[in-house]
Specification:
The chain is mainly β. The chain is about 10% helix and about 30% strand. Keywords: Signal.
């Protein structure tokens, strides 16, 4: 005899019909909704609309992944962080100001002589970027800190004679020397002034005669200044002496007659392609030789013919 009773011997429950069936259905749906609520709250939303507080010429920009200017001269102002957002000035001489962080976002001037001011570039899951595009642009960024190729932080001057000012530039590049923390003038005679270049941060002048000034280079773990073609000038702030090192650091002036007001303080650093270097100071206690000879040295009578 089987221990399990046959299924045929069980009585099936009567199926509910009419109003009773509708009531039971609604009660079951409510119970399922309450049971699944915590799981849905913890799960990430599949679609996220980027939120920001930006105004274009005084008009509030709608939420979304693009804040765009017009074909004329625009003033784009963002009073919040940008995350997964592209700000595009378009044509004209634009003023773009970002008071918050630039997180996985891009701020681009477009055509024209633009002024771009942004806070820290903070790549988290993608790259963060500021680009002047074509024109003689003025760019100011608080800090440029990248982390590999997938999370780079880059400031591009692009075409034109650009003026770029940033704080510290840090972050090692990834595969194929991509990403990391980079400031580059690209084409044009650019003026680039940055803070400390360290932890493999890079400052690249690009083509033509560039001026590159840095507060320090490689004090902790290395950095690079590479000016490229053109008669370039590399120095500390306002032409002062730039110390390279103590821990790695490299200056490569590239092609052209370049003036490098730099000094290495470590055997781990390198300085190359600098035709004009700062003059060495005379040894302590030894006076420097005066340039040229005096017409009549003191104590020596003049030649009779000269009387």
């Amino acid at each position: 005899m089987s221990a399990t009773p046959p299924s045929r011997s069980r009585k099936r429950p009567r199926a509910l019909r009419g109003p009773a069936a509708i009531t039971a259905l609604l009660a079951g749906a409510a119970a399922a909704s309450l049971a699944g609520a915590p799981a849905e709250a913890s799960a990430p939303r599949a679609v996220r609309v980027p939120m920001h507080q930006c105004w274009v010429n005084g008009v509030s920009a709608p939420p979304g992944d693009l804040v765009s200017g017009t074909k004329g001269d625009d003033h784009i102002f963002c009073d919040s962080d940008l995350e997964n957002v592209t700000v595009w000035g378009g044509d004209g001489n634009d003023m773009i100001e970002v008071r918050g962080l630039v997180i996985d976002s891009a701020v681009m001037g477009g055509e024209g002589n633009d002024v771009i001011r942004a806070k820290h570039l903070v790549p988290q899951n993608a790259s963060s970027m500021v680009r002047g595009n074509r024109g003689n642009d003025v760019i100011k960024v608080a800090t440029v800190s990248g982390d590999g190729a997938a999370r780079g932080a880059v400031v591009h001057g692009d075409d034109g004679d650009d003026k770029i000012t940033t704080g510290s530039v840090t972050g090692a590049p990834g595969k194929f020397n991509r990403g990391g923390g980079i400031v580059t003038g690209n084409d044009g005679a650019d003026t680039i002034k940055v803070g400390t270049i360290d932890f493999s941060g890079r400052v690249l002048g690009g083509s033509e005669a560039d001026i590159i000034e840095a507060k320090a280079l490689g004090p902790e773990s290395g950095g690079l200044i590479q000016s490229g073609p053109g008669d370039d000038r590399i120095s500390g702030p306002d032409g002062t002496l730039l110390i390279v090192g103590e821990h790695w650091g490299s200056v490569d002036a590239g092609v052209g007659k370049d003036t490098c007001t730099v000094k290495s303080v470590s055997t781990r650093t390198s300085i190359s392609s600098c035709e004009v270097m700062p003059k060495a100071a005379p040894p302590a206690g030894k006076p420097s030789k005066p340039e040229g000879k005096p017409a009549n040295p003191e104590g020596k009578p003049a030649h009779p013919a000269a009387r």
